[in-house]
Amino acid sequence: MENHFATCRCPCGQDLQQLGAVDHLLVCPEWKNSSLLYGYAIEQSRSPAGRSMLIYECEALLRLASPKPEIEEEFKVPAKKLPQMQKQPSYDKYVREEEVVSCELCHRKQPDMTNMFFPECCHMMCKSHAIDAIRSQYPIQNYAKCPMDCGYTFSVEEIIDLIGADEFEKLKEKSFQEFISQTGGIVVNCDCGVMSILEPGVPDYAYKDEQGQPISRRAAENMAQFRFRCGNCHKIFCASCKADPYHLGKTCQEHQDFKVAKHCRYCGKVIQSVRPVCSEAACLELYENSCKKILPCGHQCFGTNGETECFPCLEEECAQGGPTIYDYCAICYIDGLGAAPCVKLICGHLLHYHCLNTYLEKRWVGPRITFNFAKCPNCKEWAQVPDNPALTQKMDKILELYDDIRQKGLKRLKFEGMENDPRLNDPNDHYYQKPDIYALDRFAYYECFKCKQPYFGGKKECEENRDRAGYNPQELVCPGCSAICMDGADCKTHGKEFIEFKCKFCCGISAWFCWGTTHFCDPCHTKQNNGDYVSQKKKEDLPQCPGPDLCPLKVRHPPNGEEFSLGCAICRNLASNSREF
């Protein structure tokens, strides 16, 4: 056979011979950097289709450049020269030998790549070997490996390229059926379009339902066998009866019976009575406070007794994209709206009546007055319920308190010289032209335990609220009421509102009046409650006043450690600064 390999020179300067040329090129950086074919080949070989195309292109280029006769004539290799060809080095097994490719599995030679397969593991083989491996392996193990035992798993794209999409779907179905026969699983088709196999789990007989009650053994076994969570859309439903969401605590048959039976509208128990609730005391109380009107759709209203106007039906078939009985109450986040009578806020959101009523009765958390409890959890608008007279009455009192503190805050803002703060005049600022909100975010107000009126307790940082669940409300006494205990006098001009006491232990304004004798500012009161007993410290161990010019109070007062009334803050301010108020 004529040798077609001529001596040539590598870009690095080394002469290349047929033996060893490929080994040299594989490690030569000069060739990789200068060869146009190298970069193109690397890019093309990233996919199976690209590798096949690369082989076809190389074969076509060699044929175009070769003056040799037709390939059929070259392929007729004399038998006596076959051993000499088989002695070619291993690096040349992927390279066309006299324009011939060889299968690594059966060593059969082919004139081109038409019947050959070159997977990503880089083993050249006949297509028939790969197809046989796929057809024998995939139905059993849901994948197919290279028959050269290299451990490579054929990709889905490679499999479809070999056997076609239709046969691949049939193999997948066989794989599913094989798995089902071995494990007892079932094929589940989710509405999102994904097909999965559900393998039965181990029953959890200690599992509890949404009410915290243990489910029955039959329900636990049903759940272990049919409760399915889609890995694509994460929906949880029953793979047997398709109930969505899954019927926790019931078997499929019990769920079907439950759907057609009459049941309590609040706890869900099956009932036989005429009224739509069971005999449980909690459900009877909820029903007593519910609206008994029947809506035009035929369903009973989910509102409260005595409401002036009913809101739209919450049943799923009537909701039309609005809230339903299964949407959670935004206060408790435990039960759906259908689990208790609801009210519709002026903003349009729905809440359980008893949840909102409890919020309004408990009011703010901690000693400092805040108003988040009286706002909608969803949109932060005032939780006004125009259709419920009882809640409207409670909200009116809360809004009166808010307006009182708002007016006090605006006066305090002017008194503190903060009415012209740059933030109030900056169009890009959150407080632009909102002096009332700015004042309420800067000043702390407390409710006096004695007179029940709000009083100023000092400045506060926006992000800091020293709320304490275990505080003693009896220690919250306004300066006016504490002045009576300590022989303080009202201001003849401004009354009790601006009477102030300094903190006994520092140069701050008091917010707490404890033991009927002692005034604390909020920071010192916090220290006292946390075990840093400022009341037990000697005067010399307390913070020392820097003098009236540098003192935050701007007055001359006794050393810290002694009680001192600051009198009327407005009068004191007028006297020291002659500020018009």
UniProtKB/TrEMBL annotation:
SMART domains: RING. GO terms for cellular component: nucleus; plasma membrane. GO terms for molecular function: ubiquitin protein ligase activity; zinc ion binding. Residues 329-380 form the RING-type domain. The keyword S-adenosyl-L-methionine does not apply. InterPro entries: Znf_RING, Znf_RING/FYVE/PHD. It comes from the Eukaryota. The keyword Zinc applies. PANTHER family: E3 UBIQUITIN-PROTEIN LIGASE MYCBP2, RING-TYPE DOMAIN-CONTAINING PROTEIN. This is RING-type domain-containing protein. It comes from Blepharisma stoltei.
